[in-house]
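Appendix B, example 12.
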Amino acid sequence: MATAFPAYLFAACMAFAAMPTLGQSVEPTKSMTQAEVQAAYQSCPVGYYSGPRPGKTRYTKDDYLWVVTLEFAAAYCMPPEFIDKTLKGAEAIAYKLVYEGSENCGFGGNKEACGRRTAHGFEIYYKSSLQLPSVSKTKYNYRAFYMISSSKHLLSGHKIKTPAEATAEVAERPGAQARFSTQGGWGLVGVKGPKPVWPITALREIQYIEDLLPGYNYLSVEGSMGYFSNPRGEKMGATQFVLVLDKLGETRKDEERDLRTDYGHVIYLPEPFVVKIRQVDKQGDQAFRALLKQALPEAFREPTPK
C-alpha cells in the first residue's frame, strides 16, 4: 500500500538535492566549530549521519559502503555521494566485509597459519509500512551467535550437538525466532531482464529489528564470498544484481522463476554499488579497505603537520 510522502520530508529532499556535493561547500582541511557542524550536517528533520565529513574533528568511524535513496539522505543528512536513484525496494543499504566469530589457527599443521571466515554483510533499511512475507511476527531477533566476537568461542563441549538438537536448545530463547524463512529466504541473484540467470549466494538472516529508526525496519543478512568469481556464472550475461526474498513455500530454483511475479520482494542494487562488492568478493579485505579509503577519504586523511 502506498503511503503519503510527508510534506516536511518532501521539502527536505528538495533542499537536500540542491546542496553542493562533497568538497564544494567546506574546505576539507579547515576545522569547523560545533555550530558550523550542526548547521552543515545536523539540520535534517529526523536525524543525522555521524560519520566523517569535511571539516568535522569528531565523528563516528564508518566501516560501511552505503547506498541510499534521496528521501533517506534528506531525513538523516547522509553524504550526497551515498545517494543513488536506481536503488529500488529499500531505502538504504550498508555493506561491509563481515568477520565471523574468532580466528582459528593451525591450518596445514602450521600453528602460525591463522584464518577467519569472512562473508558479505548487507544491512537493509526498508519502510515499516512495507509488508513482506514472513514466517513469524517477531519484532526482534539475533539468531547467529557464531557471528559475535565472544569469549565463548574459546570454550567447546565434548558432545557435538546435531543440528536438530542445537535448534531445539535455542528455540525458546528471546530473539531466536526467525522473521523470514529459515529455509530459502533471502538471496543475491544476477538477472538478465526479468530472468534470474546467476544465483550468487544464499543470505542468512542475522538480525531483524522492527522500527529501529522511525518508520524504518532493519534487517541484516550475510552470505558466502567467492561466488562472483565463478567462470560459469560470469558467462550467463547478468545485466543487473538484486537481493530477493522467496515467497513462502517456494521450492523452485531461481533460474525457473520470473523476477516480476515469483518473489516476495526484490531489491534492485545500483550498478556502481555492485561493482564495489564484486571487487571485495574477488580481492578480499585489502580491496575493502581501499574502497573505504576511496569512499570516505576524511576517515583516512593524514593529519596536517604543524
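Confidence is low (pLDDT under 50) at residues 1-5, 20-27. The two ends are 58 Å apart (CA to CA).
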